[in-house]
Amino acid sequence: MAALTQTRRAVGRIGFEFDANGLFCAQVRKHGTGWKLIHSRAAAAIPNSVPDTDHSRSAMFRANDLVQAAAGFRGSEVASVLPMDACDLRVLELPAASQSELRLMIANEFEASPTSDTVFDFWTLPVGMTPRKDLTGICSLSTDRRLISETVRRIEAGGFTISGIDGLPTACGRAVSMMDASGAGIVVDGDASLRMAVHIGWKRCTIVLARDGVPLLARVPQVQGLSSFLEATCTALGLSPQEMLRLMRGLRDDLLIQPSAEVMGRLHNAARAWCLPLCEEVLRSVAFSGRPALRMVPSAIILMGSGSIINGLAAIMTDELNMAAQLWQIPAGECVSNGPEFAVAAALSAWEIDT
Predict the structure, then answer these.
(1) How far is it, in rounded angstroms, from Cα 355 to Cα 350?
(2) How confident is the model at residue 3, as a pLDDT?
(3) Which residues contact 191 (CB under 8 A, 6 or more apart)?
(4) Fewer CB under 10 Å: which end of the chain, C or N?
(5) Is the alpha carbon torsion for 222, 24, 346, 229 positive or negative?
(6) Residues 231-240, buried b or exposed e (16+ Cβ, 10 A)?
(7) DSSP β-ladder status, 14-18 and 77-82
(8) Topology classification of domain 226-326
(9) Which tens digit of pLDDT belongs to each residue from 142-183?
(10) Given strand 88-95, what is the order of strands in its sheet?
């Protein structure tokens, strides 16, 4: 939501993304005009854990879990991100004003709500996203201040110093920008600076339209995340969720796994069935951003988050949307995974590095 420090550095902080089923850690460094992933690691949540604070993903990990996940990483400074089910994402229309005046008006909006102990950040939307020319479109992201305090406390209990807590839409936008700056983005027709990030989490998905790393539009559609896909496929194939995840990772990483044609067919059909509602929501977002007043049509879809492990997802979305879809990635060091599940953690690591 707001960074506390900004220093000149070449190696980023340790990025922590807490999801309902795991923790993703990453650290990057500047690599020419782009980025290189130098450390990445995933850790599973405590089995059957229940957050003691509403939506507190960090409560699902012990301090020792954080230390082990970040073993070998450089430094102890951490940046984290809030899950979207812990946030309130709003689009507001306010009178044209300075940034400080806009912040005051937004604060007044939250003070009128039943939950007054709120912390928020915001960004302005492009001209044309509001019907009246004398109004400014604002996208605000807010959460309970107690959740921030709880997240900070738990991370510091592991011996880390937390220097920033970001929002998922801004982190997704920055992850896309890092990919393009590193030369890992696909070259397609259209505006190369305008991309749509689709973050697939354990419980839900987030769609972010970004230009040069700045979010212009953010939506949380009524589409369930990776957990709903696993429920369907595990029942059909007679596998546990852990076995299913190992199978999907093995297929993605080209390990020596040779499922039968029947199993591969079932996986493909399940992936397509799960993906179709998400494709419909992406098309709604593209239709809104492409209307005559805006004319912002993304040149590609970038998939990230834990659910991007679903096999064949990029190809299915490319076919259904008639638009290039690609898994997030940036260059990585030897024996370092640069899978799309580390996109947000990498963006947190690169947050406010002096370029």
Answers:
(1) 10
(2) 45
(3) 211, 296, 297, 298, 299
(4) C
(5) negative
(6) eebbeebebe
(7) parallel
(8) Nucleotidyltransferase; domain 5 (3.30.420)
(9) 888 888 888 898 899 999 999 889 989 999 999 999 998 888
(10) 88-95, 135-144, 118-124
What sign results for the dihedral spanned by CA atoms 57, 63, 65, 68? positive
Please state whether the predicted TM-score (pTM) of the whole model is above 0.70.
Answer: yes
Q: In the CATH scheme, what architecture does the domain 2-85+145-185+330-349 have?
A: 2-Layer Sandwich (3.30)
Instruction: Judge contact between 92 and 123, C-beta under 8 A.
Output: no
Token pair of 202 as six digits: 């354990």
Q: Point out which residues pair with 303 in neighbouring strands.
A: 198, 327
Find tokens 């900070």 and name the residue: 152
CA distances to 214, 258, 333 from 307, in Å: 23, 22, 23
pLDDT in tens, 92-121: 888 888 889 988 988 887 776 655 688 888
Residue 264: count other Cβ atoms within 10 Å of its Cβ. 14
Could you tell me the residue ranges of all domains in the chain?
2-85+145-185+330-349, 88-144, 226-326
